[in-house]
Design goal:
Number of helices: 23
CATH class of one domain: Alpha Beta
Oligomer: single chain
Helix content: 40-55%
Bound molecules: pyridoxal-5'-phosphate
Structural class: alpha/beta
CATH architecture of one domain: 3-Layer(aba) Sandwich
Distance between the termini: 41 Å
Strand content: 5-15%
Length: 500
Amino acid sequence: MVYGMTLQYRSTRGNESNSLTASQAILQGLAPDGGLYVPVIFPKLTTPLKDLVGLSYQDLALQILKLFLDDYTEAELKACITAAYGDQFDTNLITPVHQAGNVNYLELYHGPTLAFKDIALQLLPHLMTTAMTKNNYDGQITILTATSGDTGKAAMAGFADVPNTRIIIFYPKDGVSAIQKQQMVTQTGDNVNVLGIDGNFDDAQRNVKAILNDSAIQAQLATQNIQFSSANSINIGRLIPQIVYYFAAYGQLVQNKTIALNDEVVFSVPTGNFGDILAGWYAKKLGLPIKRLLCASNENNILTDFFHTGQYNKKRAFHVTSSPSMDILVSSNLERLLFEVLDEDPTALSAFMQEFETAGSATLSTTAKTKLADFVAYDTDQAQTLAAIRQTQTQANYTIDPHTAVATHGAMAYLKDTKDTAPMVILSTANPYKFPETVLWALTAHKPLESGFEAIQAVSNVISLPVPKNISHLKRAKVRFDQTISVAQMAPTVLNILTH
Ligand SMILES: *Cc1c(COP(=O)(O)O)cnc(C)c1O
């Protein structure tokens, strides 16, 4: 890239003059002013769509990533992509589309930790270490991450024993499934730490953000040449790789003749932190023919209300549901969408977020709300989640996990309400064996006594899908991390880990 032509990333809350290159934004994670990095000028896809159909996942990834991460050389990106999307995935397609009844499932769970987070988190460590070299940074990067279950494991799997990095994970101790917990507490690697906290995901996420922005902690760590970054989807290095599978899905639908080139499709996305669906919106901005993005929520339905009314209101109860990776009140990535509907005005965005933080609620103007027309939103309760799993099994002989069930219920409700004939693609974000208690409940129609590995066994007795090795191996894996701390202990614990 010619100097001066490089794509710049700016903070949603700050001055454009503080913008960074892509590799610098990946190292930084969250902007120092608490905002999120977004491209100053949204890139243009110049390759015609038809030339993207039929590319391997890896070649497609290069085409998309080079638009956004343009201070990396093609050779650097290729090396990162090759390392990320190899035989740690159990299919060459990486993200295969499966047709079930009248809808299509984009399976994003074929990576090492069996949830969609792997797609970005197998790549991020390579992008980050390459960024360190490119920016002559010779210190250590510490990844601090709050997880509702899947990010933590996927981030550790990506970063374990990566030189010059350390990773510290916080999870809500009662807010993850038994299998998710077992996956995390057995993680190997000398540079990893996992801690349960007495609190929910929002407590974890809020405090991680506070630690990342604490200048006293940063100053202390700088003396040891340690810099913080994030593996949450606030990092553009998490977000951008997720654009790729929307194109991959579209290409497969063209190839298997479900659609003709340029036909519009609807994507239904089980949503938590709004990273996955935002990547879909970025795909649409690049020109992928997406008619609608369906934001599917569980009982934590702040986003459903937001898309229906324009009011973003967190004054409500927090629900622990059977889709824990979506048990989120405040979705970080919504800020990137808000920034755009507020005409990329950091002052307006900061005021909106400030009001939301202090009053607990903020409302878009009518004009701003009309800019959300690409989105529809549905919420799904526990009974509907179970029904969606059961119906998909009996009607299409296909097993889905509770997160995917939330998106399935939303998709069916949308199709019924709108009679839309555009093909529906439902993002399938986790292997059903990650949440065996709920799947068993749905399939047997009564709340099971079994949990964890017993529930897995029981599920495998009734469905034909084999139990993935990465789950069956967990049973004998050694527990390495059993510490639980209070929310107030998070910052001191981080300092303690890093200074010893
Ligand atoms: C993280 C996650 C989601 C939600 O994705 P966001 O990008 O946070 O909106 C949905 N399903 C599963 C299984 C997840 O792990």
